[in-house]
C-alpha cells in the first residue's frame, strides 16, 4: 500500500521534510515497480532509494552535530543498523530473490516510525540552532561586517 504524506510526518524543518517526502516517493515507486513485476526497475528504485537515504542520513546527522544534539551518536547508530538491514535486502535482490514486497513493507513501517519517534526527538535542538544562526547572520548584516566598519 502506498504511503500518503500526512501532516503528522512533518518535522517542521522544511529541508528535512522535503527529503523525507522524496524517500516516500521512492518507497511508492518501489510498490509501482513491484506491481509491474519489473525486476530491473525494482533494483534501480532500491539502489536509488538507498543512495538518496544515505545522503539524507549524513545531512541529518550533520545538523544534529552542529546543534549539539545530545543523542546524536545513538541516532547515528539507528541509521547504521537500518543501512545494514537494507544492505542485506540489496544482497538478496542481487542474488535474484524477490524481496520487493517484504522490503517495501519494512521501508514504509521503518520510515514512518523513525520520523515520528527518532526524528521528532532532535527537532527542538536543530530548530533552536537554526534560529541562533539566523539571528547571528542578522546581527552581522546590521553591523555591516568588519570590513565595512573599518573602511566606510
Q: Any chance you could write out the topology, listing elements then pairs?
A:
Blueprint: H1 14-36, H2 39-67, H3 72-94, H4 100-143, H5 145-150
Question: How would you summarize this macromolecular structure in one to three sentences?
Answer:
The chain is mostly helical and 152 residues long. The protein has a single domain, classed as Hemerythrin-like (Four Helix Bundle (Hemerythrin (Met), subunit A), Up-down Bundle).
Task: Characterize the structure shown.
With 152 residues, this protein is an all-alpha fold. 82% of the residues lie in helices and 0% in strands. The chain is built from 5 helices and no strands. It is elongated, with a radius of gyration of 20 Å. The N and C termini lie far apart (63 Å).
Keywords for this structure?
Four Helix Bundle (Hemerythrin (Met), subunit A); mainly alpha; 5 helices
Low-confidence runs of at least 5 consecutive residues: none
Principal-axes shape call? elongated
Portion of residues in helices? over 70%
CATH architecture: Up-down Bundle
Let me know the CATH homologous superfamily: Hemerythrin-like
- Content of β-strand: under 5%
CATH topology: Four Helix Bundle (Hemerythrin (Met), subunit A)
What is the C-level CATH assignment? Mainly Alpha
The mean pLDDT is 88
Amino acid at each position: 500500500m502506498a504511503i500518503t504524506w500526512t501532516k503528522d510526518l512533518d518535522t517542521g524543518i522544511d529541508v528535512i521534510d522535503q527529503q523525507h517526502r522524496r524517500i516516500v516517493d521512492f518507497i511508492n515507486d518501489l510498490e509501482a515497480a513491484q506491481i509491474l513485476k519489473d525486476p530491473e526497475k525494482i533494483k534501480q528504485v532500491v539502489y536509488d532509494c538507498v543512495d538518496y537515504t544515505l545522503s539524507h542520513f549524513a545531512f541529518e546527522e550533520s545538523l544534529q552535530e552542529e546543534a549539539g544534539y545530545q543523542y546524536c551518536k545513538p541516532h547515528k547508530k539507528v541509521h547504521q543498523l537500518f543501512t545494514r538491514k537494507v544492505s542485506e535486502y540489496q544482497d538478496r535482490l542481487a542474488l535474484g530473490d524477490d524481496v520487493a514486497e517484504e522490503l517495501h513493507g519494512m521501508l514504509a513501517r521503518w520510515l514512518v516510525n523513525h520520523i515520528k519517534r527518532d526524528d521528532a526527538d532532535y527537532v527542538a535542538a536543530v530548530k533552536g540552532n537554526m534560529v541562533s544562526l539566523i539571528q547571528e547572520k542578522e546581527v552581522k548584516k546590521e553591523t555591516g561586517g568588519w570590513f565595512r566598519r573599518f573602511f566606510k
